[in-house]
Amino acid sequence: MNYEEVLENARKCIGPSCKACPVCNGKACGNKIPGPGAKGAVGDTAIRNFEAWQNYNVNMDTLFANADIDTSLELFGRKFRYPIFAGPVGAVNLHYSDKYTDVTYNDVLVSACAENGIAAFTGDGMDDNVMVAATEAIRKADGLGIPTVKPWSVGVVKQKMELVKASGAFACAMDVDAAGLPFLKGFQPPAGRKSVEELKEIVEDAGVPFIVKGIMTAKGALKAKEAGASAIIVSNHGGRVLDSCQATADVLEEIVEAVDGSMKVLVDGGIRTGIDVFKALAMGADAVLIARPFVTAVYGGGAEGVKTYIEKLGGELEDTMQMCGADKLSDISSDMVW
Questions:
Q1: How far apart are CA 254 and CA 59, in angstroms?
Q2: Binding site residues for FMN, as ranges?
Q3: Cβ(255)–Cβ(235) below 8 Å
Q4: Coil vs helix vs strand at 200
Q5: 23 class by beta-carbon count within 10 Å (0-12 exposed, 13-18 middle, 19+ buried)
Q6: CA 55, 37, 136, 130 torsion: positive or negative?
Q7: Could you read off the pLDDT of 73-115 as tens digits, one per residue?
Q8: 311 backbone dihedrals φ, ψ, rounded to 5°
Q9: Which domains, from first to last, does the chain contain?
């Protein structure tokens, strides 16, 4: 199976909101929710995320000795084939189509990612079964996955964290940018934004490295650090929660500079190719997340579709490293992008 076949198969079953576009750039889905779009009137942030990466180019330099290219990453005691993670998605049967439920989707995604040398972040939702299915899939993969809890009220977070602990996950996350989702804004008891003190309590209770997803400013990054996070994800929730928000590529370097190596920095939002991955690493990220195209991969080919997409990304990253003079990830530097 090649990637074109994955896309062709996905278009037959992925539902009315996602078009399984050749390039997932946010233009066809606009502001459609449920689905892969955005809650805003325009849905321009998802488009801006994609386009921002295209404003950066790589600097080719092949005057280096030939060497094997090492794309591997170590994170929190685990070694991964590529610095790429599948991003969290929940309630797939609502957002896409009923070909998959959260149980079947996570079974495919988590296991296929683990079998192909990376790991998946899993999603959360109003239906408690979303987190139950996600954490069970991670448990069956010997903890090789990262459950992502939404910023619920304190009591609900504690309940979800019990599922996280039972999964044996090697790390966990909270997507604080989900505070802007409509169902969380009206949630009772109140959910959404978290103070540093509230987040610190959650981090301490986790018992594993904690990742805060949804950081878009240097100030926010330093608050996550103060709360005890081991890593942050520069993210605006895929452009789904706030129109006119900056693109993740445009704030990444400032945030990397602010944390100054004190925590791991990951980034998502509009990253679609291995060349984009290379750009993110050159700008200081340790790794990237990609979400919506992995949904397309599952719907278009199941485990084989996931493998196809991972190998596509990995091959593009390896080729870019080869052509820009980087033998391993630590060789990738800021002067390799323009």
A1: 21
A2: 213, 235, 268-272
A3: no
A4: helix
A5: exposed
A6: positive
A7: 999 999 999 999 999 998 898 889 999 999 999 999 999 999 9
A8: -70, -30
A9: 3-57+74-325 (3.20.20.70)
Residue 179: name the closest of 202, 195, 155, 162 by CA: 195
Binding-site entries: 213, 235, 237, 240, 268-272
- Among the listed residues 332, 286, 225, 267, the one whose alpha carbon sits nearest the alpha carbon of residue 74: 286
Q: What 3-state class would DSSP assign to 289? A: strand
Binding site for glyoxylate, by residue number, is 237, 240
Q: What is the pLDDT of residue 33?
A: 67
Kindly tell me if the per-residue pLDDT of 187 is higher than 90: no
Collapsing DSSP to helix, strand or coil, 121 comes out as strand
Angle between helices 3-11 and 292-324 (to 10 degrees): 160
Question: What's the average model confidence in pLDDT over 50-78?
Answer: 97
Q: Which residues are catalytic?
A: 237
Measured CA distances, 282 to 117, 229, 243, 288, 337 (Å): 22, 23, 27, 12, 7
Q: What is the DSSP letter of 243?
A: T
| CA 126/CA 310 separation, integer angstroms | 30
Which token pair is 15?
């539902």
d(CA 200, CA 265): 18
d(CA 12, CA 183): 29
Cis peptide before 182 (omega within 30 of 0): no
Query: What span, in angstroms and rounded, lies between the C-alpha atoms of 230 and 173?
Result: 10
With 0-12 / 13-18 / 19 or more C-beta atoms within 10 angstroms meaning exposed / middle / buried, residue 162 is exposed
Q: What is the mean pLDDT of the chain?
A: 95
Taking the model in full, what pTM does it have?
0.97
pLDDT at 42: 82
What's the sign of the alpha-carbon dihedral 104, 108, 111, 114?
negative
Measured CA angle at 292 (ends 157, 7), to 5 deg: 150
Q: Phi then psi for 41, rounded to 5 degrees?
A: -70, -25
* Measured distance CA(331)–CA(203) in Å, rounded: 32
Q: Which two tokens stand for residue 114?
A: 């683990």
